[in-house]
Each structure stands twice: as structure tokens, then as C-alpha cells.
């Protein structure tokens, strides 16, 4: 039993160490598309958490945001995470689709305030704001 616990501790330590190394390396990426992609999923998770708690966000948009968060947290993936480059692609696509669905339902300023990353990324994902319809 002791060997099993030691092995589990070593594996957990190695996992935490690899996550820390990836975090440090991601911070050192030069500005550009690779750095944007490395920050996209964490920014989306932060945005989902903030929008889920905001009372100005409609229920349907909250459901889409929670769905995106659950998808990212789920260990089941369409493309396994260990495949280099394309591993997190399914997470990115699902999160992007959910944010595009929720985007028109959420006031633009609320969405931009919830996004912790580069504003141009969320603006590009959401597209141009729709013009307001004239009041009758």
C-alpha cells in the first residue's frame, strides 16, 4: 500500500510540475497567435465564471457559458489532449461556438468587462456589434 501511495504522489508531483512548466513557458511566448492560443482557454474559463455570476446575462446565455465550462473541464474529448498542437482544438472550437451563441444575448460592455485577455480576441470572435434597432 505504501508503494502505491508513493507512486501516486510522484505522479501527482510530476503532473503539477509539468503544468507549472507549461505555465512558465506560455508566459514567455512572444506576442502573436501562439501566445493568444495559449491564453484563450484560461481566458474563456475566467469569462465563463464571471458571466455565470452576472445578473445582466440572460439564462440562455448562462446555459451556453456553463456548457462551455463543463466541456473544457471534462476529461472526455473528441481529440485527446496529448496530441500536440491539435489536442486542445475541440475545447477551443466548443468554447468559441458557445461564446458566439451567447454574445448577441449579452450586452457588449458586460462581455468585454468579463474578458480578462486581449480585447481584440473577443471582438474578433464575436464579430461587429449589431446596430441597435430603432424604437417605435
Automatic annotation (TrEMBL):
Q: Where are the transmembrane segments?
A: 6-26
Q: Name one GO cellular component term.
A: endomembrane system
Q: Which InterPro entries match?
A: DUF1232 (IPR010652)
Q: Which residues form the DUF1232 domain?
A: 61-97
Q: Where does the source fall among the domains of life?
A: Bacteria
Which keywords accompany this UniProt record?
Membrane, Transmembrane, Transmembrane helix
Q: How does it sit in the membrane?
A: Multi-pass membrane protein
Location in the cell reads: Endomembrane system
Principal subcellular localization: membrane
Q: What is this protein called?
A: DUF1232 domain-containing protein
Query: Which species does this protein come from?
Result: Glycomyces albidus
Amino acid at each position: 500500500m505504501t508503494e502505491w501511495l508513493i507512486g501516486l504522489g510522484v505522479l501527482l508531483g510530476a503532473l503539477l510540475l509539468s503544468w507549472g512548466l507549461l505555465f512558465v513557458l506560455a508566459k514567455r511566448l512572444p506576442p502573436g497567435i501562439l501566445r493568444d492560443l495559449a491564453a484563450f482557454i484560461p481566458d474563456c474559463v475566467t469569462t465563463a465564471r464571471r458571466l455565470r455570476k452576472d445578473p445582466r446575462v440572460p439564462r440562455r446565455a448562462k446555459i451556453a457559458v456553463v456548457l462551455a465550462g463543463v466541456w473544457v473541464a471534462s476529461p472526455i474529448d473528441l481529440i485527446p489532449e496529448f496530441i500536440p498542437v491539435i489536442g486542445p482544438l475541440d475545447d477551443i472550437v466548443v468554447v468559441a461556438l458557445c461564446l458566439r451563441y451567447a454574445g448577441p444575448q449579452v450586452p457588449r460592455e458586460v462581455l468585454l468587462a468579463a474578458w480578462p485577455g486581449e480585447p481584440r480576441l473577443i471582438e474578433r470572435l464575436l464579430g461587429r456589434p449589431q446596430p441597435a434597432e430603432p424604437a417605435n
